[in-house]
Amino acid sequence: MANVTIKDVARAASVSVATVSRVLNGHDNVTEHVRDRVLSVARELRYTPHAAARSLSSRRTQALGVVLPDLHGEFFSELIRGIDQVARRHRLHLLLSSYHGDVEEQGTALQAMRGRVDGLLVMSPYTAASQSLEDARSLSQLPVVLINSQSGGAAGTVLGVDNHGGARAMVEYLVSGGHRRIAFIAGPEDNFDAHERLRGYRDALAELLPGTAEWILRGDFDEASGHRAGRELIAASERPDAVFAANDMMALGCMFAFLQAGIDVPGEIALAGFDDIPLAGYVHPGLSTMRVNIAELGSHATELLVAAIASKEPVTEPRRWLATELIVRESSGPPERRTSS
Amino acid sequence: MANVTIKDVARAASVSVATVSRVLNGHDNVTEHVRDRVLSVARELRYTPHAAARSLSSRRTQALGVVLPDLHGEFFSELIRGIDQVARRHRLHLLLSSYHGDVEEQGTALQAMRGRVDGLLVMSPYTAASQSLEDARSLSQLPVVLINSQSGGAAGTVLGVDNHGGARAMVEYLVSGGHRRIAFIAGPEDNFDAHERLRGYRDALAELLPGTAEWILRGDFDEASGHRAGRELIAASERPDAVFAANDMMALGCMFAFLQAGIDVPGEIALAGFDDIPLAGYVHPGLSTMRVNIAELGSHATELLVAAIASKEPVTEPRRWLATELIVRESSGPPERRTSS
DNA sequence: CTGAAAGCGCTTACAG
DNA sequence: CTGAAAGCGCTTACAG
Fold first, then answer.
1. Nearest residue for D3, CA–C1'
2. What residues pair up with A126 in beta bridges, in sequence order?
3. pLDDT tens-digit profile of A190-247?
4. DSSP-assigned letters across all residues of B42-62
5. Interface residue of A77, A78, A252 to substitute, partner B, most B CBs within 10 Å
6. Domain at A61-161+294-322, CATH from 3.40.50.880, 3.20.20.70, 3.40.50.2300, 3.90.420.10
7. What CATH number has the domain spanning B163-292+326-340?
8. Looking at the keywords, is Ligase present (chains A, B) (predicted)?
9. B73 contacts in A (CB within 8 Å)?
10. CA quadruple B331, B334, B339, B341: dihedral positive or negative?
11. Tens digits of per-residue pLDDT, B86-141?
């Protein structure tokens, strides 16, 4: 039983393939009578159009390409959920590709998207990957929206989280709570988000506590590095009165180090993170953090892309930042109200 | 600047399109000299093959369709990660589609896959969806591997977690710990996993504690329903000495209800879940549970599918179950060793 | 309103 | 080893 094609339907309905095509695509220049016949024959034959053939002649795939550095973890899960939400609303498929931090592979993935998708959503947080991205973009000839990436040049919209503003706001909050010796656990050096958060910490410190030395510890966004940083701080001759980690996982690692050492959080040292992962609300004490609405990031980016595809214009949207939200829990001191950055 | 096609490359390299095609597909019946010229011209022109055209004539898409009920949460994140892992090893793309619990949409999604993918990975935990699945499968004419689904008939491989065996093993473990009044918080009624876990609880109870009445509370897999069940149990005239929830989220909800009521876990009531989500290890007391290796489920399913596509035979693999693993933490009583189900 | 035909960009026997 | 040509299954001007 071979696959049934549009020809089979045409033959069975005694019309041309052009007519079948028109009916199936909902064109209105078809007689009611003929339309019904075609539709019922198509159903009877269990006909399903062949997407590749359709794409080839219509030059539309009804799909979006999503190229991410990784798929593991809640961040990507949320991002994909946001993307999926608007994609399905527009009846667009999602072609997913993760390049696992390999810049070469990112280029390959982008190229392989030609003829498969109508536009590209690309996240490239590695500061080094921007060139490859630029190449690939010109290669693919497709509308592109960049997510949380260093602007790779002129073309394409870039959408990201306001990491800089969020980090600044967190430092402001800690300072307003009376903290003065605020240590920062940084993220990976080649990561754009990490970079921006560090910059926010520095700028806020310079502005609010001029003359105070920066206090920066290395980290790489995972819990273990936060734990290490915490132990370093415990061993330091002078301890900070607050620790701000560039993300929640490191903040939690640091928190566990403190708790193991019998240090009271927030009594002796206040603690804050960034992201607001679910765990942040479950641990004890609850972790204060800057909430990033990842799903919204994904859905916004997708909206922009869909618009770009529809307009057929090269995307010239300005860079846009999504606000973060301060979430105050016990780890940073006495409870206060939420505010927005 | 229009997109460059294989014709442009052929012209620029002074060869036929057939030869360009051969070079690009790595066929060996091409002179070294010609090969090099074509390759360098292709690179120079930044040529990228058009996937739809290639798919149409080669009848291969190099892509796998993944149809899931939802994308939200860690389960799907892990599943996709496992799938992606083997897909990338075989250089296969992933077309993702979630039908959000809508059986109609599931059918539509499956149909839309024709001409886009070489095979289908489908998860359909809704017991009612099996008919639609069967329809769609015959429609799509593609190799299918079902994940955690009720066997929809003869065709297609079914791969799933051994929910029944895992639940049995958990009850056995609780009984061996001296517990006799074991309440069970069930999952959604139309969910296949939930169904199997409940069956495991029942079978184990009937076997190990004959004559003991089943003690089943309703739940729907989320934390709130676990919390509700916990409050019900607190209010009961007689309390259980152990509670086994059909998943971790409900177990955690139940745990919070107990802790709020000042009930000692596991002192007064032991508690166990199913899944081993990361939270299970972070809460205090740590939650005993049955670990399900979701990523492995995804990668196994994908291996089977890839094999099915390669063999071109209708898949007739028997139903397969992935073992679960008992993880003992504080919530179930004194620490013991891990064992496998 | 309907059909014949060209064309989308490839791959693959078939000759040579 | 290489090329001309048919064909994959659709869509879309172009006529009528």
1. B16
2. A191
3. 888 899 999 999 999 999 999 889 999 999 998 889 999 999 999 999 999 999 999 9
4. HHHTT----HHHHHHHHS--S
5. A77
6. 3.40.50.2300
7. 3.40.50.2300
8. no
9. 77
10. negative
11. 999 999 999 999 888 787 888 888 888 989 999 999 888 765 555 555 655 555 57
